[in-house]
Amino acid sequence: MTELSFDIASLHDFYAMGGNPEHVIALSHQRLAAAADPGIFIHLLPTSDTRATALALGKFDPVSKPLWGIPFAVKDNIDVAGLPTTAACPDFAFQPSVHAPVVARLLEAGAILIGKTNLDQFATGLVGVRTPYPAPKNPFDPERVPGGSSSGSAVAVARRCVSFSLGTDTAGSGRVPAGLNNLVGLKPSLGALSTRGVLPACKTLDCVSIFALNVADARRVFDLVAHFDAQDPYSRPFVAHDGKVRMLGVPRQQDRLFFGDRAAERAYEKALSDMSRAGLPMREINMSDFFAVAQLLYEGPWVAERRAAIRAFMDKKPEALFPVTRNIISSADLFSATDMFEAFYKLQALRRATEKIWDEIDALVVPTSPIAPKVVDLEADPIGPNSRLGTYTNFVNLLDLCALAVPGPFRSDGMPAGTTLIAPRGHDRILTDLGARIFGGTGGFDAHRGSTAA
């Protein structure tokens, strides 16, 4: 039983042959104990509760309940009724009385919640270690960061404690951890998944993201939870585009930024070579305007949205914030309303400039993480490595694009690398079709057995 795959198809095959979800729940906890990583979860549901949920499912029925018996986890800035929402800040914690709609839809589909996961406090960061709780450990190398802000959500899936998890993504938090943990990370089009019941980071840019062991599972979860929520002011009807990818865009040579990390650079070049051999045509793209957009997110006044999300709490208890998080969010006070409007004007001009690129290509292929920083690197410089991790992610939500991180060739040092596919809004399913073509099989590299498995 310890070798049981946790991808959805394998678990449903197990159940169809008489397997019991109680065994899966027990295995989930066994794997968590074996990981010896107290930083993955902030809240674990008692096994008595999860077993009661499993019993209430009744007879195995994957038709009426497409996620029957599938274990999952939720980032702890997303509301789960009866469990605290902390956003990795204990003094901020509150206990919601209702589930966020994305959680409710998964439970209605028969999924079994295991617990709520750790994160960079208030979803501010891409490193995954800005938390007052023990930081989650990267399962491939505990000296490396796990990626954030959805660190616990990614590590829970990478450790096969759950089949999939929910994260959030504002600047790359649903993609960077996927890349550093060899997972699939789907960042949907803005508004496709309800963000009601999600503590905002930047409300105009936030989206709920999905971590999974393979593209099919990410697609299945997306299809189940994507819906228009009239009670969410930022929900938008999802209009799916159909079509095939005829041309891929890749950064031109001078725009392939790896900051001296040759292992990351070689892995990306190998990924492009593999795609080329698979018959996917490519065209080099000037990334200058994309990089200019990326700079707006963390170097411009959008940080004020983070301040707005927790303004009352931060004004009352600034000492409760993780020091790096407090310093970043406090920088909002340096910007004026005039600065914000000027940034909006600049963004709109850059949006118009980048729109032309989608006339030439159907999807953009970039490195997910151009570096794989060590935790000790952040002790010397808590900001620089985090900023570099967002090189190819920060611009996506500002430009209203969708993205899919997929595993790729491993780095020479044994760390995952991964690539990210990017396309205009509404092309989410086109990206999953492309991702499934690039990332074949049923799962990624298993950190525990050194082989491909789910």
User: Which regions contain 5 or more consecutive residues with pLDDT less than 50?
Assistant: 441-454
Q: Can you count the helices? A: 17
Number of strands: 13
Query: What amount of the residues lies in strands?
Result: 5-15%
Query: If you compute it from the alpha carbons, what radius of gyration comes out, rounded to the nearest whole angstrom?
Result: 20 Å
Q: Number of domains in the coordinates?
A: 1
Instruction: Quote the average pLDDT.
Output: 94
Specify the overall morphology: globular
The secondary structure category is alpha/beta
Helix content: 25-40%
Q: Provide the CATH topology.
A: Amidase signature (AS) enzymes
If you had to describe this structure to a student in words, what would you say it looks like?
- The chain has a single domain (1-441), classed as Amidase signature (AS) domain (Amidase signature (AS) enzymes, Alpha-Beta Complex), CATH 3.90.1300.
- The chain is 35% helix and 13% strand.
- The protein has helices at 8-16, 21-35, 47-56, 101-108, 151-158, 176-180, 215-225, 262-277, 288-299, 303-309, 311-316, 323-330, 337-355, 375-380, 384-389, 395-398, 428-438, and strands at 41-44, 71-75, 112-117, 164-169, 184-187, 207-212, 248-251, 282-285, 363-367, 401-406, 419-424, 445-446, 451-452.
- The longest helix is centred in the C-terminal third of the chain and has 19 residues, at 337-355.
- The radius of gyration is 20 Å and the shape is globular.
- It has 454 residues and is of the alpha/beta class.
